[in-house]
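Example record

One chain of 97 residues, shown exactly as stored in the release files.
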Amino acid sequence: MKKLSAYDVIVSPVITEKATLVSEANQIIFNVAPRATKTEIKAAVEQLFKVKVTAVNTLVRKGKLKAFRGRRALQSDTKKAIVTLAEGQHIDISTGL
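Predicted structure tokens for this chain:
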């Protein structure tokens, strides 16, 4: 199995109302690659953003069956990671890498 690079592990930051609420608790939410592990996610965030990560929690949202113009299609599964940063660390996700 090929090792993922840091840019392949972190797909995008999640910018929602709930994501901004958890940012007050020093946490950031990212969409990540489906086969990325917690240790790979931690290493990627530390490498890309130059911060200290204390914890990584992951969740998989199962794809839903949706209808669009009369056609039914299954959305793909998505994996998210909730990354807790060390005290005093900060990531500004509104700016690019």
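Notes: The mean pLDDT is 91.
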